[in-house]
Design brief:
Elements lengths: L1 H14 L1 E2 L4 E2 L5 H16 L3 H4 L1 E7 L7 E9 L5 E5 L17 E8 L4 E8 L2 E5 L5 E9 L9 E3 L2 E4 L7 E2 L7 E6 L6 E4 L2 E2 L6 E4 L2 H5 L3 E4 L2 E7 L2 E8 L6 H19 L11 E7 L5 E5 L3 E6 L7 H15 L26 H18 L5 H17 L8 H6 L12 H4 L5 H17 L6 H15 L6 H12 L5 H5 L7 H5 L4 E7 L4 E2 L2 E6 L2 E7 L4 H5 L6 E5 L2 E2 L3 H9 L6 E8 L2 E8 L1 E2 L3 E7 L5 H10 L5
Parallel strand pairs: 3-13, 19-20, 20-22
Antiparallel strand pairs: 1-2, 3-4, 4-9, 5-8, 5-12, 6-7, 6-9, 7-8, 10-11, 11-17, 13-16, 14-17, 15-16, 18-19, 21-22, 23-32, 24-31, 25-26, 26-27, 27-28, 27-29, 29-30
Length: 631
């Protein structure tokens, strides 16, 4: 996202430029000083028409119960025969082509006098307005929005959530221009929550430094509950929609601790200067749901309405930690492909394991360090990431790096065979992050850890070099901090089996593996549907897989016994002996087929940690640090 920040600097130069009076007001920053002379020379060579182009946006929600918003984009002094307006196909941070243009309707355009202009759709997400060289062109359209998630827009009678990349088009070749956004909410709505800053005293008129910032700034409209707190030198706003059992005073106190703990890793908070001198949490509380999506100075969280007590609070704070960690990791410290976005096509990288998986490792670690997770619970979470990766049949097929690259076509489009052929760059990436942290600690006898890598890379690639990093640079940075080559990378970019004991020994941990070889299992996931037992998935290498069962088979009977439910069928199989042959009668496409299946255990391995009784002082130190204890 560093290219975006460069745009911000120049956008504010344009804001303060008054061509007609030949005055120039510049607000210096560290990077701008280096380019001032060259910019001034270039400025003298440019004609005033180069700065005369002006873009402005308007969004209105006059009838929210219809789930529509109305958008106008006005371009002045473009002096072109035609202007192309493009809507992104995906939301940065969520790596799937979502085809947002499917919600666009009633496109039209007019000139300054209201004269209709020809609108031609030239691609699935681009509309061409034939301007006849008009000095002012307004392109209008409506968007249907009725999908409540952290990455898609939703409008109903109670509120409007506008995920901007799916709402606002950009005039091609004008993405870098500053603009304003005027928001016209329903007359009964009094609140707006967004990372964008108001132009003046009207909170519904917002400054847009450039299109990248607009696309990265979701907007919440309605009568949401708005809370505020200050942490790490930054004002934070929390906008709650949907009610819930949170206590305003305590929830902001807890979130502030997470913010402070996260900022301490990097030594600074980037949101201390305009235009990003604040941070906004937009929190949706449906009856069920969860997830989050990061943005440059905001995030969108979804949490169960009644999920703010007990373990639910811990889970919510872990979600807060995950998305807030992205303020550095992804939004500023980023792989090269994740900045200067191509909004119409996939943006590939093999490093989502680090961008998202390591962030997943840190979300629990930060929650633990902040005092909201017991050591035993935290260790269980680490064990789960290891056992999930080890027991995933897909870990023998797809590397974590490949999972990152294939996110666009596999992770967000799972099918019945996904568990057999893929891994999650989130959970497997978190596992890799935990082992990477251990190996760095082991190599430095506890003097360095993954925190040091994050700080170094943030300073080196974001602040100093002003760019993203490559795979080679990521590994080099980790090994620079460790002071030696690291073995974990061969497991990230290949399916080579992992020797967990090697890594855990750095913390004086013995790994105990427990495999149930006595209880038979078909290896199928069964579901009750309309009085039928349906096979939803079959794990590779299990009795059901080898015996010929397929997804969508209906289990009718086993050994001549009618099966009344999925749980009954699972219990029946578990009550037999390993090695025993059973007959399973299924209906497949309304054909009755018997199968002879030799029962076997499912074969999953459970992990347990045991502390070495003779652990060294260094191992004890590493154990304490690795499990979230303070140095």
């Amino acid at each position: 996202m560093l290219q975006v920040l460069n745009h911000i600097e120049y956008s504010f130069i344009i804001y303060s430029l008054n061509i007609s009076h030949c005055t120039l007001a510049l607000k210096f920053n560290k990077r701008m000083k280096k380019t001032l002379s060259a910019f001034a020379i270039t400025l003298g060579l440019l004609s005033t028409s180069a700065f005369a182009q002006k873009v402005s946006y308007e969004v209105a929600v006059p009838e929210p119960h219809t789930h529509y918003c109305e958008i106008k984009v006005t371009v002045e002094d473009a002096k072109k025969k035609h202007i192309d307006f493009t809507l992104p196909t995906w939301a940065p941070g969520s790596y799937l082509i979502r085809e947002f243009s499917k919600g666009v309707e009633q496109e039209n355009a007019v000139d300054a006098t209201g004269k209709p202009l020809k609108v031609e759709k030239v691609t699935k997400n681009t509309w061409r307005v034939h301007t006849d060289n008009s000095n002012k062109v307004t392109f209008s359209y409506k968007v249907y929005a009725f999908e409540l998630s952290v990455r898609t827009s939703f409008i109903d009678a109670s509120h409007a959530f506008l995920s901007s990349s799916g709402i606002f088009v950009f005039p091609v070749e004008m993405e870098k221009l500053p603009s304003t956004l005027t928001v016209k909410p329903h007359s009964s709505w009094k609140q707006i929550s967004t990372g964008l800053s108001p132009v003046g005293n009207d909170k519904f008129v917002l400054a847009v430094p450039n299109y990248d910032i607009l696309a990265d700034s979701p907007i919440e409209l309605g009568n949401q509950d708005i809370l505020t707190f200050t942490a790490a030198g930054v004002r934070h706003e929390v906008a709650f929609w949907g009610g819930g059992n949170y206590d305003p005073a305590s929830i902001t106190k807890h979130m502030a601790k997470i913010v402070e703990e996260t900022a301490s890793i990097f030594g600074e908070n980037p949101n201390t200067q305009k235009p990003f001198d604040h941070y906004t949490f937009i929190v949706h509380n449906p009856s069920r749901g969860g997830g989050g999506l990061e943005h440059l100075n905001s995030t969108v969280l979804q949490n169960s309405r009644w999920g703010y007590g007990g373990s639910g609070l811990t889970n919510f704070l872990s979600l807060v930690a995950h998305e807030y960690f992205h303020l550095w990791n992804v939004k500023r410290l980023r792989p090269k492909p994740l900045g200067g976005f191509d909004y119409s096509n996939e943006n590939y990288t093999r490093m989502l394991w680090f961008a998202e998986g390591v962030t997943s490792y840190y979300d629990n670690l930060i929650t633990r360090r902040a005092g909201y997770m017991e050591e035993s619970k935290y260790i269980d979470e680490i064990i789960n990431t290891m056992s999930n990766h080890e027991n995933a049949a897909g870990s023998k097929v797809q590397s974590i790096g490949e999972a990152s690259f294939d996110a666009w076509i596999k992770f967000y489009r799972p099918n019945e065979n996904s568990k057999n052929s893929t891994v999650s760059y989130y959970t497997s990436g978190a596992m890799a992050g935990a082992l990477l942290d251990l190996e760095i600690m082991g190599a430095t006898e506890g003097k360095k850890c993954l925190d040091d890598v994050m700080r170094y890379m943030y300073q080196e690639y974001y602040k100093k070099l002003d760019r993203g990093y490559s795979e080679e640079e990521l590994q080099k940075a980790c090994e620079l901090i460790a002071g030696k080559p690291l073995t974990i990378f061969k497991h990230i970019y290949s399916t080579t089996p992992i020797n967990y004991e090697y890594y855990l020994n750095f913390a004086g941990i013995k790994l105990q593996k427990v495999t149930d070889t006595r209880t038979p299992n078909l290896g199928t996931n069964l579901s009750d549907e309309d009085g039928r037992i349906i096979v939803k998935s079959v794990a590779k290498g299990t009795a059901g897989y080898d015996g010929g069962l397929n997804v969508n088979d209906e289990i009718i009977a086993i050994d001549g016994n009618r099966m009344p439910s999925a749980s009954f069928a699972n219990s029946y199989v578990a009550g037999q002996d390993v090695g025993q042959e059973i007959e399973v009668l299924v209906s497949r496409d309304n054909l009755i087929i018997p199968f002879k299946i030799k029962l076997a255990p499912e074969g999953k391995t459970g992990f347990r940690f045991a502390r070495n009784s003779d652990a060294t002082a260094t191992q004890e130190l590493i154990f304490k640090q690795w499990t979230g204890g303070k140095k």
